[in-house]
Design a protein that fits this description.
Blueprint lengths: L1 H12 L5 E3 L6 H10 L2 H9 L3 E8 L2 E10 L16 E11 L2 E11 L5 H23 L11 H20 L9 H10 L1 H9 L3 E8 L2 E8 L2 H7 L1 H5 L3
Antiparallel strand pairs: 1-5, 2-3, 3-4, 4-5, 6-7
Helix pairs in contact: 6-7
Length: 238
Amino acid sequence: MGTQKAVAEKIRRKRADYVLALKGNQNALYEDVKLYFSDAKIRQEIREKAGYTSTTEKAHGQVEKREYYQTEEIKWLAQNKEWNGIKSIGMEEKTIRDEKGERKEYRYYISSLATDIETFRRAVRGHWSVESMHWHLDVTFREDASTTLDKQAAQNQNIIRKWSLSILKMIELMKPGLSMKKKRFVVSLHPIKYLEEVLSFKTGVGSVEEDGRIHAFVVHYNRNLLTLIRWYDIIKYG
């Protein structure tokens, strides 16, 4: 928690704004915000004050509805003086419907932003994208198991994995909805065949995180790029 406070301080010194995710280990702050948003009457009041928006997406055989709430009513929050520039708190409520039924997930945030629900929504989705990328690096590419000791080599491999992840996200193999790990396995069975398929994707959009920032890029997929990132890094399975 002390680290997040330092991050908030640094961001504000740069005259920028923050949206920070709250974790369960933050005890009172997390529980206070969670309890606040659990009140249906409060959520309705936020809706009426234009502090609400929602999106619905269908992917991988399931429907996801995301509802976003943001409010500047934080005078009651005991910890608000501990966070530099805090102006609002927010919540993302995600409802997932698939063949197993319906389930809900909740995430809570503090922010230096005044109520601007679209900006808040984009910031929250940015959090999710970064978390998702790190999860794939750890689980799909087993980055934590890497034994590379040289710092520069490790950084280069990290960038290569992120490029490979961007390519795998854009291609469909055999059938829609394959996980990243299964895509790597499928490609490993017939690398030459799928190399040609990937080469048919001429352009794409991706992102790379470096020094704590997400850098978006547009790339042209051709033989030079695939030689650079090494096809083996995309398909290596295990």
